[in-house]
Design a protein that fits this description.
Elements (H helix, E strand, L loop, with lengths): L29 H17 L6 H220 L6 H136 L3
Helix pairs in contact: 2-3
């Protein structure tokens, strides 16, 4: 909160530029106004109605009022002077601003005039430059026309000189084009023959591959037949082994029965030995017969074992032979497959070579056809040029003949009669 003046009641602000000890409105010093206020308060406290000074108070109040009125009048006069000075200052500032604005406008007008003058000068210089460039272009065109005329004359002379050379060159080009065309046809024929031979080789390789595949199929069929025969042999061998085992089991059973009968007989003999000495001989003979039968059964069993061993050996030989046949058939089949793969790779390489040869032949043929067409085009162009030159030569000869006729006629007309 700012300081309040006791004289005019103005509250000081932060934006005021007057000194801190002075009021911005009435320019009174704060300390003097406060001292006068304190003195007045002291006088008011000191004066009472009963004192003699109370009688002099009205005179002093009038004097103080008059002093305050004079001071207020002076303050108002100072305020009016200050307002007038501020108005004059504002008017001066406004006049200065108007003067500066007028000067700025005049400066802008002068700049615009200078820029317009500079633009006119530049336009005039550009027009002069364009005019000079046009004159130079006309001069250059004239010089170029003269140079073109001289060049045309020189070219005409050169064309006349090169007519014979071009005719010879055209003839040589015709001969070379014909020779290239013949060579191209011969090369094409040779490549066609090579391609046909390659296709023949490919066909032969395919036929050989088909034959190899047929042989491989036969070998595979033989391998299947051998496997079937081997399986049948194994089944027969297994059946023979089973039968031999059954024979051995039957012989063992018979032997066991014979031994059981011998034991039974011995028991009967031992039991009845005391009672039947007479039957001893017959029992002995029966025992011998049974022993002979047992021996025969043992012999049969040994024979059956030998037969079984021989049959097992035969079966093993048959299995070995079948395995050898199977291995041989598998080897033959593998060799046939290897030959078939080799033949296929050879056929693929032959086909690739034939395709490459055919592609190269086509490329060479197209290139030679293009060269032949270019040579024919050049030949046609040369023919057209030669025809045009022949026509021009004929016209020139006709013109020379006409000129000679006219000159001869003029000579004949001018000769004395």
């Amino acid at each position: 909160m700012g300081k309040i003046c006791l004289k005019c009641g103005y509250e000081r602000r932060d934006t005021d530029v007057a000194p801190d000890y002075e009021c911005p409105r009435c320019q009174r010093v704060y300390a003097k106004v406060e001292a006068a206020a304190r003195w007045v308060e002291g006088q008011d406290a000191a004066v009472s109605p009963a004192s003699p000074a109370a009688q002099e108070a009205p005179a002093r109040d009038k004097t103080a009022d008059e002093a305050l009125r004079r001071e207020r009048a002076e303050q108002e006069a100072r305020d009016r002077e200050r307002a007038a000075a501020e108005a004059l200052a504002r008017e001066k500032v406004a006049q200065e601003a108007r003067a500066r604005e007028q000067a700025a406008r005049e400066e802008m007008v002068r700049r615009r005039a200078a820029e317009e003058a500079l633009a006119r000068e530049r336009a005039e210089e550009e027009a002069r430059a364009k005019e000079r460039a046009a004159q130079d272009a006309v001069a250059r065109e004239r010089a170029e026309d003269e140079a073109r005329a001289r060049e045309r004359a020189a070219r005409a002379v050169l064309v006349r000189q090169q007519d014979a050379r071009e005719a010879l060159a055209r003839q040589a080009a015709r001969e070379s084009a014909l020779a290239r065309e013949r060579a191209a046809k011969e090369a094409l024929a040779l490549r066609e023959r090579a391609v046909r031979e390659a296709f023949g080789m490919a066909k032969a390789a395919r036929q050989e591959l088909a034959a190899t595949e047929t042989a491989a199929r036969h070998v595979l069929a033989e391998l299947d037949a051998a496997r079937t025969a081997h399986a049948a042999r194994e089944d027969a061998a297994r059946e023979a082994v089973a039968l031999a085992r059954q024979d051995v089991v039957t012989g063992e059973q018979a032997l066991r029965e014979a031994l059981a009968q011998v034991e039974t007989a011995r028991g009967a003999v031992a039991a009845e030995e005391a009672a039947a000495h007479e039957a001893l001989a017959s029992a002995t003979e029966e025992l011998r017969a049974m022993e002979n039968a047992a021996r025969q059964a043992l012999a049969q069993m040994e024979a059956a074992r030998a037969a079984l061993g021989s049959k097992e050996d035969a079966v093993r030989e048959v299995l070995a032979l079948a395995r050898q046949d199977l291995l041989g058939a598998e080897g033959a089949a593998r060799e046939a497959l290897v030959r078939m793969e080799t033949t296929r790779s050879a056929l693929a390489s032959i086909e690739a070579g034939a395709s490459e040869a055919l592609a190269l032949a086509r490329q060479d043929l197209m290139a030679k056809e293009g060269e032949a067409r270019e040579a024919l085009a050049l030949l046609e162009t040369a023919r057209n040029g030669l025809a045009a030159k022949e026509e021009a030569a004929r016209e020139a000869v006709a013109e020379q003949k006409a000129a000679l006729r006219l000159s001869a006629k003029a000579v004949g007309d001018g000769a004395p009669t």
